[in-house]
Amino acid sequence: MTALLPAILPVSLIICIGYLAGKTLKLDYQTLSHLAIYILVPALIASSLYRNTLSLQSAAGLIAGYLLTTLTLAVIVLLISRGLKLSPPVKMSLLATTLFGNVGNLGLPMVSFTLGAAGLERAIIYLISAAILMAGVGPALLNTSGLRAGLALTLKLPLFWAMLAGLLLQVSGLQLPFRLDEGIAMLGNAAIPIALVTLGMQLAQNPLQIGQYELMAASLRLLLAPLIALGIGTSLRLAPLDLQVLVLQSAMPTAVNTLIWVNEFGGEPARVARSIIGSTLLSLVTLPILLGLIPSIGP
After folding, report:
1. Which PANTHER family match (predicted)?
2. Residue 196 · residue 18 · CB < 8 Å
3. What does the alpha-carbon distance between residue 87 and residue 120 come to, in Å, rounded to a whole number?
4. Which of 81, 189, 284, 296 is the most buried (most CB within 10 A)?
5. What is the C-alpha to C-alpha distance for residues 281 and 228, in angstroms, rounded to an integer?
6. Where are the domains of the chain?
7. CB 22 within 8 A of CB 203
8. What is the DSSP letter of 251?
């Protein structure tokens, strides 16, 4: 357990600071969340892709592993919903909380502290894939707006354009003048701590209620998803580090932004909020166990 503390304590400390800020200060966590989503995270993605040395084979393997894991989870959730005869709003809520993991706010710092810079490069590829899926397919999953509306929404997000700019600069080999890349990198470096503070504040502003539904939703996200990712990644014969990142990112709790999507497009916001809180708190138990197993995955 002592070996895991360097990975767990820095993340936990920042989340706790955010929690205390949410309890004692009159701060608007939505403002911080928008700052992270629309400015800091896009800067982190653009800077990371610009400097990324990840091979095309590794990137393709991670993307394939993520998509196959997500598809498998979606099928399982739909089968469970049919078996339990869940209403459409509850089914959509369970689908959202299972598919959309907190691979940005929590996943990036966890991978960074655990697997270093090389792991972070791979975690960002996973994050970009998840962001595109959430923005492009999420509205269609939660409502009848269709893929065209989802695509239009994706094109409005800075994440997409940051990804495109980073890829174009990386592929073209162009160098930004006047050390502008360092300025973008400095901005991106603020994304992880701000995101963790925001997560802590969000935890402080929501009551804790965990019932059978919340336990089921958390189990799908925290236990089943990494097991599926491990099986799929092994079948794809991913390199050890690629497989470790795929499994670790798949084990993250439900994304905080899931509540925004459900509010906008359909589902039960109160149920989703409880699932986010429940999975986040339970991940404090499951993630340390997984971190202890990560070194044995892949070699």
Report:
1. AUXIN EFFLUX CARRIER FAMILY PROTEIN, SLR1864 PROTEIN
2. yes
3. 39
4. 81
5. 22
6. 27-291
7. yes
8. T
Q: Which CATH class is domain 27-291?
A: mainly alpha
Compute the distance between CA of residue 140 and CA of residue 72 in angstroms, rounded to an integer. Answer: 18
SS3 101: strand
- Calculated CA dihedral for residues 286, 110, 13, 285, nearest 10 degrees: 0
Q: Extract the tokens encoding 221.
A: 């996200």
The 3-state DSSP class for residue 254 equals strand
pLDDT at 137: 65
Tens of pLDDT, residue by residue over 14-50, are 888 988 998 898 887 678 877 877 888 788 878 877 8
Asked if residue 118 lies in contact with residue 89, where contact means CB atoms within 8 angstroms, the answer is no
* Cα 3 to Cα 224: distance, rounded to the nearest angstrom: 25
Cα-based torsion angle of the residue sequence 163, 252, 10, 22 in order, rounded to the nearest 10 degrees: 90
* DSSP string across 204-217: HTS-----HHHHHH
Please give the model's pTM, rounded to 2 decimal places: 0.76
CB atoms within 10 A of CB 298: 18
3-state secondary structure of 145: coil
**Token pair of 183 as six digits:** 């300025």
Residue with tokens 């429940």: 278
d(CA 72, CA 81) in angstroms, rounded, equals: 14
CA 29 to CA 72: how far, in whole Å? 33
In degrees and rounded to multiples of 5, residue 218 shows phi and psi of -65, -40
The residue type at 266: G
Give Cβ neighbours of residue 182 (< 8 Å, ≥ 6 apart).
none
pLDDT tens-digit map of 105-157:
788 888 888 888 888 888 988 988 887 777 656 666 665 455 566 566 667 77
Tokens of 258: 């899931």
pLDDT of residue 68: 96
